[in-house]
Specification:
single chain; alpha/beta; Rossmann fold; 8-stranded mixed sheet; 6 helices; 8 strands; about 25% helix; about 30% strand
Amino acid sequence: MRVNGGKVKGLRLKGAVSSGTRATTERARAAIFNILPGELYQEGRVLDLFAGSGSLGIEALSLGAGWVDFVEWDRRQCQVIRTNLQTTGLLASGEVHCADVGRLLDRLTQRYHLVLMDPPYAIEELGPVLEKLGEEDGPIEEWGMLVVGHSRFIELLPEYSALRRVSQRRYGDNAVDFYKKIGPDDED
């Protein structure tokens, strides 16, 4: 697995060491960052939930994100993320939080321009996490984006709180949904 673009393009990343951890494919990562407008996250804050190897957040850093918070519950995978950040020279541009995503969302005080998440396929009910992310006082900035990778066999809703799906793509068994957070004055 390699970084697809940006300042550390081509560097090899360490992958999953824990069973149940599935890295976002290089193809899906490349597609996500080809779709997202760079000005959304460049120099901005990014949150990588269910980070696994950290490949999504590291791709964002390589492409110009100012800071990434990585959240992963498995301690061995947290060490993989730290190793990948060190290997790429991006260790000073992010922090690894070894914690449960649901619990950490209640404690976050930062706001993010972009939230990336590609949870294990075994987690079939993503609704509560997506609702929390979409809350008006949640961690996503107004007009910020949420990108959710998931099994194509799981159908996500078109709206979660203030999040509105703006695009959905399929890559083999993978699906990627793009949500934009709208402001309270933009409600239909």
